[in-house]
Design a protein that fits this description.
The chain is of the alpha/beta class. The protein has 16 helices and 14 strands. The protein folds into two domains: 218 residues, 3-Layer(aba) Sandwich (Rossmann fold); 165 residues, Rossmann fold (3-Layer(aba) Sandwich), CATH 3.40.50. Keywords: Transferase. It holds the Pfam family Glyco_trans_4_4.
């Protein structure tokens, strides 16, 4: 198939869409990626890209078509301008750059924002190619949950935008089962929505990994590792409150691998609370190196704020944690917590409950290595059973081929 992938985020930024594109090209599909300038999460365009943009014009056999956009910067207004600048640039300049090109299907990747659906819907109409839309973040509910938008009028307008985009999709993919009724509320009950979770990148082989040198040696420590975006949704106030309550337990360390909009605040709070000895910020590193950091982890931490919308979410990092075969400590509500609990892959507590998080970490640290290893084995087994990368991508290929065949039988020619 000739596939057009529309995504605001792409390599050298670390997102799962990179792995999907690479695998689709390996399966023999002709993939073109329409994307912006790499600037996540720092908020400014990556220096290595500015120095040599041409070096980032192809990725694992896929052509990468980039359009200008406003970097994320800092602050809510700058972020909104970032979202809409990509949508406008990908719609106008992207259409020009792809003039005369034919595609069998359009695939839009939406971890956030929903506005990525605007250029994707335009491409669907002009190219006369059916569109699949992978929803990893629900708008407008997430905007309200993290306090970005409080106006009911604005939230209502965003809801209308969501409905506009969803109703132009031939297939909508939901990252959790709980997402499906929320999506159908905007897309219509007769819309085609399928459960399509994330998977772990094929990089988490802890047996072969060499421990990351960035982690200071501390014999007999119990390391709780958080890896990923340091944002408002991850509820770092609760995480730091748990760390503060355990700071007299000298064997417990909290290792934070990643970066994000709240990174500066977290660093300041660590110093203010006197947690420098037990909470270490190790910075952002390529996904290819995550196994070397996970090698140090006795438990992997996943958390989301106590908001209804987040109880419907399976955090993307959870699949990577499960594949690593390390016990999970989850400060979550809803579907994500149930995944961990039902598989006996770790310990869970309610979102926002820092005291329960501290208790769970202490309980894990007091378990025998054999007990923790059993949890890790359960995690790995669940990863293979429910979130196998190869099976999921094959399922996606089948959906895309069926979608294309159903919308445009062979006798019908497609657009330019």
């Amino acid at each position: 198939m000739r596939l057009l992938v529309v995504t605001q985020y792409f390599w050298p930024e670390n997102f799962r869409i990179n792995d999907l594109v690479a695998e689709l090209t390996r399966h023999g599909h002709e993939v073109t990626v329409l994307t912006g300038l790499p600037n996540y999460p720092e908020g400014s365009v990556f220096p290595q890209f500015r120095d040599d943009p041409q070096a980032y014009s192809r990725y694992e056999g896929a052509e990468v078509v980039r359009v200008p956009m406003r970097p994320r910067g800092r602050g809510g207004l700058s972020l909104m301008l970032n979202y809409f600048s990509f949508a406008a640039s990908a719609s106008l300049l992207g259409m020009w750059k792809l003039r005369g090109r034919k595609f069998d299907a359009v695939f839009a990747y939406e971890p956030s924002p929903i506005t990525v659906g605007l250029p994707a819907a335009l491409m669907r109409a002009v190219k006369r190619a059916p569109m699949a839309f992978w929803v990893l973040d629900l708008w407008p509910e997430t905007l309200q949950a993290i306090g970005v938008v409080r106006s009911s009028m604005v939230l209502g307008a965003v809801g209308k935008l969501v409905a506009f985009i969803y109703k132009r999709c031939d297939l909508i993919l939901a990252q959790s089962r709980s997402f499906i009724p929320q999506i159908q509320k905007y897309a219509g009950a007769d819309s085609r929505v399928e459960y399509f979770p994330s998977w772990a990148e094929s990089l988490f082989d802890l047996e072969r990994a060499v421990p990351a040198e960035e982690v200071p040696a501390q014999p007999d420590s119990f390391n709780v590792m958080f890896a990923g975006n340091i944002g408002d949704a991850q509820d770092f106030p609760a995480i730091l409150a748990a760390a503060e309550s355990l700071k007299e337990h000298s064997h417990i360390r909290w290792l934070i691998v990643g970066d994000g909009r709240m990174g500066g605040w977290v660093a300041e709070e660590i110093e203010r609370r006197g947690l420098q000895h037990c909470v270490l910020m190790l910075g952002r590193h390529p996904v290819e190196r995550m196994a070397s950091f996970f090698k140090h982890a006795n438990a992997l931490l996943v958390s989301l704020k106590d908001e209804p919308i987040f109880s419907m979410t399976i955090p993307g990092k959870l699949q990577s944690y499960l594949a690593a075969g390390v016990p999970v400590v989850a400060m979550l509500n809803g579907e994500g917590a149930e995944v961990v609990k039902n598989a006996a892959a770790g310990l869970t507590c309610a979102a926002g409950d820092h005291a329960a998080l501290a208790s769970s970490v202490l309980e894990l640290s007091r378990m025998t290595p054999e007990e923790r290893a059993s949890m890790g084995q359960n995690a790995r087994a669940l990863s293979v059973r429910e979130f196998d990368r190869d099976n999921l991508i094959r399922r996606l290929e089948d959906w895309l081929e069926t979608m294309t065949r159903d919308r445009y039988p062979p006798s019908i020619s497609r657009g330019v």
